[in-house]
Write a structure and sequence with these properties.
Layout lengths: L5 E3 L5 E3 L24 E3 L4 E5 L15 E5 L8 E5 L13 E7 L3 E11 L9 E7 L2 E5 L26 E2 L2 E5 L8 E2 L10 E6 L3 E8 L5 E10 H4 L7 H4 L6
Parallel strand pairs: 3-7
Antiparallel strand pairs: 1-2, 4-16, 5-6, 6-16, 7-15, 8-13, 8-14, 8-16, 9-12, 9-15, 10-14, 11-12
Length: 250
């Protein structure tokens, strides 16, 4: 197409009026290349956000001290695989292996977090946790949302208006662990050692937020992460829809 600084003669032969002609193509320029480290966006489907763990930017941790690796799917997992944490144990605070997803929330309200995960070892209290942070209007832990009980906050939370979570938390991240036998995948996530609170995120208005998971315990396997609207789905991690619903990538 014709651009600024270009001219043409009577025979419609293009010439340049200066050395560098600023051509403006009729076709739009291609979008910038995306990096595998760029977070993907997931949106709620009537209050349900489903993220397959292998959709997180795990490959960007390759070769670091906080590496996640993808493994092939099994009969018990969803999607096309799952991820294993193969990095350093980081028990006091998160230091690496960060993986972020963008959240496009259309249905505002309170969401509960849970994940489908597995313990590689043979001790139910070992190799069973990862770090979690959710950018939201409020991110906290409670015994149950329906109890209208006390909210607990991770250390360093910008929202802290109540007591701090006991056990491990730092820079707004919560230690999220799973309960259950060592030889089975389970859909549950708790925080606060010996108390076992659930994690909630309030989204006071529709918009784009984010979720970040980081490595904590070598041998923790994660298959999918779910946020569900408690007003729409109740407060029960055992709902079959949490495992059967397709990933909600935007």
């Amino acid at each position: 197409g014709r651009g600024k600084g270009c001219s043409y003669d009577k025979e419609m032969v293009w010439t340049l009026s200066r050395k560098d002609c600023d051509l403006v193509d009729d076709e739009p320029a291609p979008p910038p290349a995306t990096s595998p480290c760029d977070p993907l966006t997931f949106e709620d489907d009537n209050g349900l956000v489903v993220i397959e763990a292998e959709s997180l930017p795990w490959s960007c941790t390759k070769g670091t001290d906080h590496e996640w690796k993808k493994a092939k799917k099994t009969k018990q997992t969803t999607g096309d695989g799952f991820i294993k944490y193969r990095g350093n144990n980081e028990f006091p605070e998160p230091k690496g292996g960060y993986m972020t997803a963008k959240l496009k929330i259309r249905k505002k309200g309170t969401y509960k977090f849970t994940f489908h995960s597995f313990i590689e070892g043979h001790e139910s209290t070992e190799e069973n946790d990862s770090w979690l942070y959710i950018e939201a209007s409020d991110f906290y832990a409670m015994r149950s949302n329906h109890e209208n009980g006390k909210k607990y906050y991770p250390k360093g939370s910008e929202h802290a208006s109540g007591p701090i979570i006991g056990g491990a938390s730092k820079d707004g991240f919560m230690k999220m662990f799973r309960n259950g036998d060592t030889d089975e995948w389970t859909m549950n996530a708790r925080t606060y050692d010996h108390v076992a609170l659930y994690a909630y995120a309030d989204f006071n208005k529709a918009g784009t937020y984010s979720l970040t998971m980081a490595g904590r315990s070598y041998g923790h396997w994660v298959d999918r992460l779910v946020l569900y609207h408690v007003g729409e789905y109740g407060d029960n991690d055992k709902q079959s829809i949490l495992l059967t619903h397709a990933e909600t990538r935007a």
